Amino acid sequence: QVQLQESGPGLVEPSGTLSLTCIVSGDSINSHHWWSWIRQLPGQGLDWLGEIYHTGLTHYQPSLRSRLTISFDMATNSFSLTLKSVTATDTAVYYCARGNGRQWLARDSWGQGALVTVSS
Amino acid sequence: DIQLTQSPSSLSASIGDSVSITCRASQGISSYLAWYQQKPGKAPTLLIYSASTLQSGVPPRFSGSGSGTDFTLTISSLQPEDFATYYCQQSNNYPITFGQGTRLEIK
Fold first, then answer.
1. Which runs of consecutive H residues, i.e. helices, occur in A1-120?
2. A25-52 pLDDT, tens per residue?
3. What does the pLDDT look like over A94-113, one tens digit per residue?
4. CA distance B48 to B66
5. Closest B-chain CA to A100
6. Among B3, B91, B105, B83, which residue's Cα sits nearest to residue B48?
7. Would the CB atoms of A45 and B87 count as touching at under 8 Å?
8. Cβ atoms within 10 A of the Cβ of B51, count?
9. Are B44 and A107 a contacting pair at CB < 8 A?
10. For residues B53 and B63, what is the distance between their CA atoms, to the nearest angstrom?
């Protein structure tokens, strides 16, 4: 059974960089799935941020493309999110999820979520 | 971007009722439509993928239908654990998008 776990600082200063890592167990990053980041602003719905395939191919939310980088580390079977120049509007719960290539790219497994607050 | 519009935004129902939530896409998405349930403070969980395929372990009282632009999630015989927020999501085109959510409350 695949499991995903987010890790990273819960507090980031404005204009700083938000970095999160998602450790995957029970599946390989090198499989035919997409590895996604999704966030949820306080009291709001779900927003897809971007995702990466094992070939290194990435797709990003256009509005975040200039600030966002998603990468993976095969050695640790993990993938990461880096969001630069953050503001208070980036305060959210950040989820990592697997887009299952055999299930029409549905997000079939999710991490528990990591609350990141942008504040000084 | 493909916009997904869910209706209603909120819904009140009683235990044992049957309810339906619709999701309309701003352009055709074939059957690349998934439904998720989210409870407060928890990550979403997948209910339905490819518009109508029940995810393993999900009770059969959940069902999905539709293709193209119009989709429906139906929950028959509501149970206490079904009161939650439901989202649709398309993965036919980038950027991937979600509906705004439908909050299902106990009447």
1. none
2. 999 999 889 999 999 999 999 999 999 9
3. 999 999 988 888 999 999 99
4. 12
5. B49
6. B91
7. yes
8. 24
9. yes
10. 8
